[in-house]
User: Which sequence fits this backbone?
């Protein structure tokens, strides 16, 4: 198999286009030779020219086979093929009238292809080679001999041939130019996406470092609070229920800090368990709903392929799903729906609400930068969620639903999370 980078390399794509172009040229040139002989009775070495075109077609077939191999296509190799085009055209023109042949302007085609696909030094080399070949054909060529009754038509045929040669050159150059321009636009778009992803990852790394630092710094005051709570329990200056609440909240803070450190990479190894996918999602929803009991969970549906895939309990994925659930609850605590579907290869999770829906600006910018609709929000939740799903190879789509509200659709390939059965 060929790597994706090798398949999409500009040199390989341009050589593939040249092969397609060469097949069309061989067919057109073979038809032109046969028609010129039969219709205009031109004295052409038809068999020799057809053998030459057959050799070109064979070379083209070998090149297509070569493009299916793993070897990289270099600029020098593409340049050699374009030089071969000039050489073949020169031989064809030599036996068909040289510079008097109206199709001599086809020299512009390999020159244009070189200029569009290779650096400047190759373009000047092909320009010099084509000019030298054209100059040689002005003095050395096999003249076209025609029957006596055809002499009166030669000038008009020459003019028509010049027009046809111009049209053919224009079509070939335009076809290749359009393909090249599209390839350049696709490459620029891909580079822009890579730069955007790199900036996003830099922000995530910075947030990870900040999370690890915050976890380290907050550990000390929380430990102090735990000691104070223990002392208060011994002296009993506060009601037992108040102390229990204090202990629970301290425990929750420690759990959050451990999760924060894990997401930053500090204790990632301690959080990697194994669980059935449906149980993993149910546990996330259960923990979330336990902390937000006031939310009306109207629908909670789990269904998918059996046996249920066993996955790693990825800490950051759990936090990402929790962020999406919190956003839905903040939008409409009276109505939240969850639908979870899975196959052996993919998880699809939909979280819907009946809030005010998404504005066009939020739908466009979600996950790209820090955006929030909450007066006290920092805009980190969606950003980190998008970054987590992107790191795991998944995607998130946000859209408005009929009747009001929004839907968040999460799709995640399970290849990186699935645990092989033992």
Assistant:
């Amino acid at each position: 198999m060929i790597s994706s980078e090798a398949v999409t390399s500009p040199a390989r794509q341009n050589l593939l286009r040249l092969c397609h172009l060469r097949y069309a040229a061989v067919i057109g040139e073979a038809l032109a030779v046969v028609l010129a002989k039969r219709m205009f009775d031109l004295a052409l070495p038809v068999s020799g020219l057809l053998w030459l075109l057959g050799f070109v077609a064979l070379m083209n077939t070998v090149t297509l086979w070569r493009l299916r191999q793993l070897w990289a296509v270099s600029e020098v190799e593409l340049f050699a093929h374009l030089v071969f085009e000039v050489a073949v055209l020169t031989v064809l023109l030599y036996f068909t009238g040289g510079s008097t042949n109206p199709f001599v302007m086809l020299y512009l085609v390999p020159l244009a292809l070189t200029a569009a696909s290779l650096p400047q030094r190759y373009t000047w080399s092909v320009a010099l080679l084509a000019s030298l070949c054209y100059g040689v054909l002005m003095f050395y060529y096999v003249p076209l001999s025609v029957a006596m009754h055809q002499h009166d038509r030669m000038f008009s045929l020459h003019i028509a041939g010049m027009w046809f040669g111009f049209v053919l050159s224009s079509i070939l150059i335009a076809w290749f130019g359009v393909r090249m321009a599209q390839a350049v636009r696709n490459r620029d778009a891909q580079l822009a996406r890579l730069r955007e992803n790199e900036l996003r990852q830099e922000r995530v790394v910075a947030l990870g470092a900040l999370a690890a630092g915050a976890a380290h710094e907050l550990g000390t005051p929380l430990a102090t609070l735990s000691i104070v709570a223990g002392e208060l329990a011994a002296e009993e200056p506060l009601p037992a229920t108040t102390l229990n609440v204090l202990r629970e909240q301290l425990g929750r803070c420690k759990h959050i800090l451990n999760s924060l450190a894990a997401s930053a990479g500090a204790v990632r190894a301690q959080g990697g368990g194994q669980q059935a996918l449906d149980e993993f999602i149910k546990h996330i929803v259960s923990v979330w709903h336990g902390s937000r009991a006031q939310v009306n969970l109207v629908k909670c549906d789990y269904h998918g392929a059996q046996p249920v895939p066993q996955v790693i309990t990825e800490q950051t994925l759990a936090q990402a799903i929790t962020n999406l659930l919190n956003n839905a609850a903040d939008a409409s605590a009276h109505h939240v729906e969850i639908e979870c579907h899975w196959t052996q290869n993919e998880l699809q999770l939909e979280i819907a609400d009946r809030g005010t829906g998404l504005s066009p600006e939020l739908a466009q910018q979600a996950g790209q930068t820090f955006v929030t609709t909450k007066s006290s929000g920092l805009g980190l939740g969606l950003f980190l969620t998008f970054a987590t799903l992107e790191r795991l190879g998944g995607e998130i789509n946000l859209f408005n639903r009929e009747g009001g509200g929004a839907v968040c659709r999460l799709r995640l390939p399970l290849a990186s999370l699935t645990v092989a059965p033992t």
The domain at 272-413 is CATH 3.30.565.10 (Heat Shock Protein 90). Residues 151-235 form the longest helix (85 residues). The radius of gyration is 35 Å.
